[in-house]
Amino acid sequence: MNTLIPTDAEQKLIEAARDGLPADLRSANEAENDPAQGYGWGPERTIRAEIIYALATGARDDWPVHPKGIQLASARIEGQLDFGGAEIRCRLALVSCSIEEPIILVDATAESVSLKGSFIGGIQAERVIVRGNIALNGVKSVGNVNFSNAKISGQFLCKGASFSNLPGPALDADIAQIDGGVFLDDNFNAIGLVRFGGARISGQLKCSGSHFRAAGPQAPALMLDGLRTAVLLLDEGFTATGEVRLIGAEIGAQLTCRGGKFQNPNGFALSADGLTVNGDGFLDEKFAACGKVNVSGARISGNLACNGGKFDHLILQRAQVSGILAIKNLARPEQSRIDLTHARIGLLSDDQASWPAKGNLHINGFEYNAIAPYSPRDAESRLEWLGRTPEKGFSTQPYEQLEKVLRASGDERGAVEVYIAKRRAIREKGRMSRPARAWDWILDCAVGYGYGVWKTVLWSLAVVVVGAILFGFWFPFKQTPKTNITSAHSTTVVTASAAVRTKPAADSVRECADHVLRSFFYSLEVFLPFDGTPWRSSQPLRPRYVGDLWFYAIETWCVAEELLGWLAAGLIAAAAAGVIQK
Question: What is this structure's pTM?
Answer without folding.
Answer: 0.81
